[in-house]
Amino acid sequence: MSDTATTAGVGNGSADSNAGPAYTALRQELRETEALSSIGAVIGWDQETYMPPAATPLRAEQAALISQLVHDRRTSSRFAELLAAAEEEVAAGGDEEALANLREVRRDFETSTKFPASLVRDFAEVTTMAQFEWRGARERNDFAAFAPWLNRVIELNRRKAEALRTEETPGLYDALLDSYEPGMRTAEIIRIFTDLRGRLIPLISAIADSGRLPDNRIQKIRIPIADQAAFNRRVAERIGFDFQAGRLDTSTHPFCQGVGPGDTRLTTRYREDSFFDALSSTLHESGHGIYEQRLPKSERMGEPLSEAASLGIHESQSRLWENFVGRSRAFWGWALPEAKTVFSPSLNDVTVDEVYGTLNRVEPNLIRVDSDEATYNLHIMLRFDLERALLEGDLAVADLPTAWNDRIRSDLGIEVPDNRMGCLQDVHWSMGAIGYFPTYTLGNLYAAQLWEALASQIPTLDEQLQAGDFEELRGWLTQKIHRWGRRFTAPELCERATGKPLTADPFMAYLEGKLRPLYGL
Q1: Options 3.40.50.1000, 3.10.20.580, 1.10.1370.30, 3.30.230.10; CATH of 186-518
Q2: Is 181 assigned a catalytic role?
Q3: Catalytic residue among 285, 303, 307, 373
Q4: Where along the chain do its domains lie?
Q5: pLDDT averaged over consecutive 10-residue blocks of the chain (521 residues)?
Q6: What is d(CA 347, CA 73) in angstroms, rounded to the nearest whole number?
């Protein structure tokens, strides 16, 4: 398969044939509104990277104003009239892409009109300040300082959920989850998590009982941060992230910010004694970034067909590159010699098998982002349960540290020494992202099912990875996922790409196929 995508975005083969004046005017309105929204994306990225701390109150004011201006445009009477006229016009023509685009524009419009402007402004202002307070509280291990802000964030999410609730999403958590993973319901997440948990726990226990934990010495080799940064950039560029249309910086919590066409920002973080962790973060964010760069944004900026299908699908792209590629023996057949040219002599005596064993070491960890593939999803289940309890009022914010620590003890068998290593470790709640965490596990499951399908369709995949050739892999992902934007829902994309609905079976087959031989099970 030829990898013909460009970083400007990959079209679906047409630009909505025979578009009339109303639909054309609507598309222009969407583009202009997105240009305004992208300013908010830039100042959000700056807040997490280079902004001086004293600028936080002003940044909160700026973020609130931008959010309100964007909301006003998206809910204006002019926009409503343009949308109605475009729907009438396109219905007569029957263009499938335009119909899909308008279906999602209508969904977005009806969602936006449920929010009063005051809630939009309050949410932006409070979460900007909450992120700043979270960073300081995390550094000082001071949960009490963050607790009032978390209370405000939870209350704003309750107001948001109340506004969003419908007959299809009657529960508070349903309403929030639907904004990240359209069509997904809390009951379905519980079913998926219960099934997955029941299959993970015996595997984790069997590994623990095997007594065959791979040696971890290379994880502790000290590598200068400048060398790590150079290697991380080399790998990100090789797998397909375009640095002419993006950049890689550092932040407290790594993230990807898709600003717009030609502008995708990644961050990672470094420690001298943990270069694998930095590379893992960079691969993860590069997966997000490649998806952002290969959506058809240039020709469809601001339109649903230029946006990710769901957060679960977005996470599938990051987890696929981080784990299915980055933890594979084949990938390190190429990457280790490359690393040795940068890190020499630190890695001169390291072998591919040693790297493979280290990266697939299964050992309970307090930190979600540092966790192995087998225990990682237990971290997501914990957060899913706790944030539902916070939202529903069944758990007080003041009691969160105790509830967190008890759950870590029961699930992973380890003690949490402080809140910095516990309930303060993630940025998401300070951002106001309640309902987001389940998409990480959904992303793992989608990634496994996509990997199973593409491996069957690209028989020489391992040989290509070992040669550092990622073109056909990228091309497959572009053809099956990236180019469609939101034309199809996440379940539809999954079934179109893999031939079957989402299940945990490919993920468990992948894990067991790798870990059972490694641990002699």
Answers
A1: 1.10.1370.30
A2: no
A3: 285
A4: 21-164, 186-518
A5: 40 60 96 97 95 96 96 97 96 90 97 94 96 96 98 98 91 96 95 96 95 87 94 98 97 93 97 92 98 97 98 98 98 97 91 95 94 97 98 98 97 97 97 97 98 97 98 98 97 97 97 96 91
A6: 55
